[in-house]
Amino acid sequence: MSFNGRSALKHLFALVLLFGISGIAFSQVVLEGKVCDAKNDKPLEFVTVGVMDTDKPIGTSTDRNGKFRLSVPPCDSVRLRFSYTGYEYYTIALYYKDLKSPYRIDVKLVESATTLKEVQVTDEKSRSTTFTHIDIQKIENNVGPNDGVESLIKTLPDVSSNNELSSQYSVRGGSFDENLVYVNGVEVFRPMLVRSGQQEGMSIINPDLVEGINFSPGGFDASFGDKMSSVLDIVYGRATEFRGKISGSLLGVTGFVEGSVKDKFTYSVGVRRHSNRYLFSSLDTKGSYSTAYTDAQGIFSYKINDKLDVALLTLWTNNRYGLIPESQITTFGSFMKSLELDIYFDGSEVDKYSTLLGAVTFDWHPNDDFGLKMIASAQTNTEQEHYDIQSQFWLYERGMGADATIDKFDRGIGTFLEHARNELKTNVFNFELKGTHYLRLGNLNWGVKTQYERIGDHLKEWKWVDSAGYAMPTTHEILGDENNVPYNPILQFYANAENQIETFRAMAYAQREWNFTTRKNAEFRLLAGLRAQWAQTTLLNSLRRQTEESANQQLLLSPRLLASCHPQWTKDVLFRFAAGVYQQAPFYREMRRTDGTLNLNVKQQKSYQVMQSADWNFKVGDKPFKLTADLYYKYLTDLVPYTIDNLRIRYDADKTATGYVAGMSVRLNGEFVEGLESWASLSLMQTQEDIEGDGLGWIARPTDQRISFKLFFQDYVPQIPWWRMSLSFIVGSGTPVTFPYQKDRSQEFRLPTYFRVDWGNMVQLSRFEKIKRSALLRHVDDILVGFEVFNLFDHHNVVSFIWVADYENVYYPVPNYLTARQFNLKVTVEF
């Protein structure tokens, strides 16, 4: 819907006054401490620490140093239970009014001759939402070329990715641009010019700083923003004591340190330096690669008094990718028809990407019933893409000669000439106020937010293709060529634009939670909310004349509902239902045509979602497991059609489409060995769209991955306590791709199946008593030595195609292969 600015603001402020007068979030008390063996004072790992006698039980487990950290909600008293196989359990009662955050508890457990049955502790409130929580304490070795948070997310159900070099992912048929990412409540915006995983570098999230990971593939509540697919909510933890880590591998080095001063000031700082040159050595394209990703991040907090805390989040990244290509030899085809493409290059490419983010958070909790949180943030993304590359190719058909040698027969010859001088700068400023009022039956939450965006885009890019002496395509009009000159090169692609836009957004949400229990002790939770956004986009400057209006206003209203039921059956089963409207207003890329001009009249894309879920907690022996099943359907309107080439998304801003997504997924997770979580997931999904006016009807969307199976597995042998193993296994069907600037998408062509296995091993030197008592570990807590195998089975995965033509103008898709099998050594020092 579109409204004038004054009317929209009236509606928005009325919504704020209606829901914003209640109040505010109470800060929970943090309990922390250490658990040791009473006999030898040795720290105990994987001790279960749980809160007893509560409607919403919560808990955690100790790390390898015997340390734990647990947040406790308001209540009259707290009963903590410490349990560990082979030890007597220990229970302690604490009065909430006497607790001051952080409150320290050190416990010593006594060995028992009787093996106790393990107490399973789950977070019931998290279980009743659509979020999956990953306990970072139970992830010891995340293996992969990019061992960040996103590599774990890619192993979850409903998440699709066919590129191990990138942190981008698709969720339930959505595009890369439909995913929300938060760090400590601050929305983070990714670069937009990245077109391949080689350019991207590392994920913006530093795993050394992460304390909590929560991921929702859809059906999330109204407190989260206006995108259609998913939410990744990252929590950077606050330090309780001094500790640090330094890690080095063939891919780079990382460092991390955190500590606290007088229980008032805490700091956590991480630095990373990463290079993918070693990985690129296995690619078909040979040349001189120059890559360097550097970042520094920190979270600083200060407790002003018992009612007010302030925190500062800082983030700086700098990524440089350079390439002087030399040659490429790629063989493809089948046994009956084997082909080879030889390419020789001239030129170079230099890309630069940098991000600067700062956010300050004030958390005020005047009493036990109210709290208020204010967040102010600013982020700047600066991107540059410069290249001039000439590619001369020869296409051969390969055959077996009489003397058992490989003979090559000439099938085609041609040249690509590509040029780009693209620069993009994005500035985003936010101010947000969030509050929660704790009521007897459930919380009342509200929030208001303003956001200002300013984007400057300089685009100059073209591509010329000459195949077998003929420039292609030959259908482009050559402006000014009235005299029919003998030769004039025709460009396959041309874009030239200078755009500058600004967008002002005002957002608000309100939601109410109800928790109640029936006479048969069935537990119900209902969460109903409404989210609103008003946005105005204005074109400030453009190199090329725009035929559309220079400003656009839109108002979005998105109701959302979540419900859960936990019946008191003999089996611990919980049912969830979620429904809602998710509307995504255009940011920038959705409005830009392929030639660089803008269509400011693009409407907000809409997703009407409904999903039904069930999860079952059970035990196999004494080990806890959870089986989760999801069934979902999304009806999509006002879609902006797009194509994907590697990582680059090109929108067709002048067209709209209607679409749908239907699918189901199953996930089994648990502790196959004590203290280490593993999971397996299976996803089935179909997404199609009907583009208005193309006459093709329903066709597959670019993210239509029909089936995928993922496995993340961690293991160790109790008789070999110093060894840890992890395995990441991903297999997924191919997604649709298009010919260069293909107009008739009725001809569907798909990537091959993506299959990858990464295997990691880690040795803890502190587990060896002789080494532990030696001078090597005198000043450090532990030294970890890792050996990893990337792409264990050396499968040739394809990320995109180069389309070349032979002498008969028949096109062949030449695969761009991803990385081959490689080995990595990693050493980590903890102190």
List the helices and strands and how they pair.
Blueprint: H1 5-19, E1 29-37, E2 48-52, E3 59-61, E4 67-72, E5 77-83, E6 90-95, E7 103-109, H2 124-127, E8 132-134, H3 149-153, E9 159-160, E10 170-171, E11 179-183, E12 186-187, H4 197-200, E13 210-216, E14 230-236, E15 243-249, E16 252-261, E17 265-274, H5 277-280, E18 285-305, E19 308-333, E20 338-364, E21 370-400, E22 406-438, E23 443-467, E24 470-472, E25 493-517, E26 523-542, E27 551-566, E28 572-584, E29 605-620, E30 623-639, E31 642-645, E32 648-651, E33 657-673, E34 676-691, E35 698-700, E36 707-717, E37 720-732, E38 736-737, E39 749-750, E40 754-764, H6 769-772, E41 782-790, E42 798-805, E43 811-817, E44 822-830
Parallel strand pairs: 1-7, 11-14
Antiparallel strand pairs: 1-4, 2-3, 2-5, 5-6, 8-13, 9-10, 11-12, 13-14, 15-16, 15-44, 16-17, 17-18, 18-19, 19-20, 20-21, 21-22, 22-23, 23-24, 23-25, 25-26, 26-27, 27-28, 28-29, 29-30, 30-33, 31-32, 33-34, 34-35, 34-36, 36-37, 37-40, 38-39, 40-41, 41-44, 42-43
